[in-house]
């Protein structure tokens, strides 16, 4: 796996492997599982439908998963989006800006994992 490629997209490989008790193979398997997730598709649908409860759930789940795998950029934007949505009726412009960043960072992270695995 191309560690440098992962780190360019905000995945802290070293910390992630540490979190998995030094088991790099297991950590990489968990990273690869993100490629099969439908989370981004569900989040995009929730955003389009203005279903902020479902979008909160997607952002919160992504926050947990990205935090546990040290995907630091994705974790940070997931935190922002989660907090915007936590109390029900958020400001639409703020949600839009955060969601665009969330989507872009999520896509970049997936791309990095895919590219890192190819090398």
Largest sheet: none
**Secondary structure tally: strands:** 0
List the total number of helices: 7
Q: So what's the overall shape?
A: elongated
The residue ranges in which pLDDT falls below 50 over 5 or more consecutive positions are none
Give the rounded overall mean pLDDT. 95
**Helicity range:** over 70%
Oligomer class: single chain
Q: What is the element string, with H for helices and E for strands?
A: HHHHHHH
Q: What would you call the structural class?
A: mainly alpha
**What gyration radius follows from the Cα positions, in whole Å?**
14 Å
The rounded distance between the terminal residues' Cα atoms is 6 Å
Strand content: under 5%
């Amino acid at each position: 796996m191309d560690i440098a490629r992962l780190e360019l997209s905000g995945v802290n490989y070293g910390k992630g492997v540490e979190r998995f008790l030094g088991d790099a193979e297991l950590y990489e398997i968990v990273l690869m599982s993100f490629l099969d997730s439908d989370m981004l598709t569900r989040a995009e649908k929730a955003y389009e439908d203005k279903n902020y409860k479902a979008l909160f759930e997607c952002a919160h789940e992504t926050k947990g998963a990205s935090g546990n795998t040290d995907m630091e950029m994705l974790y940070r934007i997931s935190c922002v989006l989660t907090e915007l949505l936590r109390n029900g009726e958020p400001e639409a412009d703020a949600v839009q800006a955060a969601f665009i960043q969330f989507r872009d960072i999520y896509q970049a992270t997936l791309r990095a994992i895919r590219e890192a695995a190819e090398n």
